[in-house]
Design a protein that fits this description.
heterotrimer, A alpha/beta (387), B alpha+beta (70), C alpha/beta (291), A: alpha/beta, Rossmann fold, 14 helices, globular, C: alpha/beta, 10 strands, binds thiamine diphosphate, binds iron/sulfur cluster
Amino acid sequence: MNEEELNKAKKAIGEEYQFIHGDTAVAYGALLAGCRFFGGYPITPASEIAEKMAKLLPKVGGKYIQMEDELGSIASVIGSSWTGAKAMTATSGPGLSLMQENIGFAHMSETPLVLADVQRSGPSTGQPTLGAQGDIMQTRYGSHGDFAAITLSPNNIQETLNYTIRAFNLAEEYRTPVFLMLSADLGHMREKVRIPDEVETFERKRPKVPPEEYIPFGKGEYGKEKVPEFGVFGEGYHTYVTGLTHDEHGFPATDDQQDHDKLIRRQVEKILDDREELTDVEKRSLDDADIALVSYGITSRSALGALNKGREEGKKLGYLRLKTLWPFPIKEIEELSKNVDKIVVAELNLGQMYHKVKEHADKDCEIALADKIGGEIHSPDEILAEV
Amino acid sequence: MIELNEEYCKGCNLCIVYCPRDALEPAEELNEKGIHPPVEVEDRCNGCRLCELICPDFAITVVEKDEEEE
Amino acid sequence: MEKKEEKREVEMISAKEIRDKYLRHDMMPHIFCTGCGIGNVLDYTLWALEKEGLDMDKTVFLSGIGCSSRLPGYIDVDSLHTTHGRALAFATGVKITNPELNVIVFTGDGDCMGIGGNHFIHACRRNIDITVIAVNNYIYGMTGGQVAPTTPEGDYATTAPYGNLEPAFDMSEMAISSGATYVARWGVKRPNQPINSIQEALQNKGMSFVEMMSPCTTAYSRQNRMGSIEEFWDWYDNKTILAEDHERIKQYGSEEEKEELKDKIKVGVLHKEEKKSLSERIQELIEEVQV
Ligand SMILES: Cc1ncc(C[n+]2csc(CCOP(=O)(O)OP(=O)(O)O)c2C)c(N)n1
Ligand code: SF4
Ligand code: SF4
């Protein structure tokens, strides 16, 4: 993004220091990252993101539209992205469920977009105003078929803003949908935030060859090899984009096992090859720890409380926070499980990441679950009870 | 004069049916695809181009006679 | 005067030139069954594009899922073959993001009026500046002939083996009452009217809806015993009446003529109005509040 655009965004956002909630931080981060399209549909506790975007986007020349439902909002975002805009939507569980089909389309068509999910209790309408972490698996496995997801999980408001920017950068770099996971508590919690002065942004790689030579779903020529260049609509590339299995030129190739295998493996590998680069964890007090607390998002704040309390009581606790949920930090969990006797996974569901940790942990390491549902976060004691 | 792209023709015969001049008729022989493609009846076509438009398969082109000879 | 000159030029262009200019020949022959009208809808659209002189570098086609939704794949242009029923929502994102693009959507009756019904009425309501060409064949063609929301009451379908119990939607009427600003309906048998009408639809600065009644010679025809391809095409033609004639008979016709109207489907330009499009209004808002 150029200087002028960034200044416009900063001007629209206002003061350098603000006391804002997580939903607002998402809107601010999006603006700073260069997001210029938002297609939304109101849902508690994510509506404030749409409201902020409706107010701010026109000020920076961006477009806001409230669609007729979430099926439509994600569709409009994909359309906008192919037309060259950095585009996003925001929702909560029920909306995320509705979006699954077109999330699959975004994977299949390798469309950059950002989806902020402010989680609430489910299934179904559940507890609309109360937080949860029940959508984790849905971002990874929600749509049918094979794909790899990038899912980020901040735990404070400044990080939410920064990670929104990061989400856009990753979406552009990998030509893929990126999920930004909040929860009602984080979305509605206020903290002091500094609007960054400098923002590093990534712009999707565009083809440099003439249209006749452009291969929209082939090899990347000067970015990542498995991420092809993106020919924006209206620039003469005449790209055919379909959710059907397609060849390198984008045309349906639905009958051949090899065609499908080649396409999907490249799409999955473009993300999983970079697992190490993409995964991000925060570690505390692990050097001498016997027991590790593994958590993410809002729950990591309870886990931090548990760490401090446990240490005061003389327990040799450590703390590992997943900042990237997908791709899953396999190496970190493998290493951790070799260095401690026990891992306690704390999360606001009946065990989702718990199973992932178990899958990758050393067989000699005991894995326990501190689960909680119902819209309240863990108290430190509830986590310590599993230690 | 009509020119037929046999690769595109699926043998619906709509051109034959709707030609106002009865200038087309089905070929006597089946072609490779197992259909009777249209063939032109000598000296009847007036170049109205209806067949070209009514053909669902982009198989017919109407060309002017002299153009053809060139 | 100048216009006339232009028109003559257009008429001079040969079908071969049109096809070479717009079609992706490597995708041909197309997948549609023998005698299916969907190919004609494509042909008429190409002629309308040529007459209107649209820049194919600044045009985007979209579609949902179905036989009719395969059309964009045959045109050498940017296109999004989306998910079932959702093309209009994708199109909304495209048009709003870059209002300079000409946005055209191909859809089927099931795609548009069944699974996509909600997007359809809202796209009309918003009067978003796009052209929708809906192929209405009264049935779900691609999946083998199941009943559609447009299937006439009593007609047969694989999922209505005893005859359809439900009343049908009239897509064009739905478009009008939802707020579309250009609405027309045509059969495929007479090429010139739809060609001119699609051109008018492209010119309209707002939501244009052109319903093309198109015979499905496989799934619909067989189950409803429509006879040969020719008989089926004629049936469609005989079933229709020009909107002007319809109006005239309604006002001045004999009782007998009025009775006959009951069985007829109105074709023609059914609605036309001038109204600001959403894309235009968003642009205006931005000019007003931009920092
Ligand atoms: C979500 C979803 N549901 C069902 C289908 C299966 N499906 C494919 S095409 C189609 C019907 C299309 O009918 P219509 O829009 O009338 O188009 P036609 O094939 O008749 O041209 C259906 C139900 C699908 N692809 N996606
Ligand atoms: S151009 Fe007209 S007259 Fe000639 S073959 Fe075609 S339909 Fe018949
Ligand atoms: S199934 Fe029906 S609508 Fe589909 S291509 Fe065949 S004739 Fe046309």
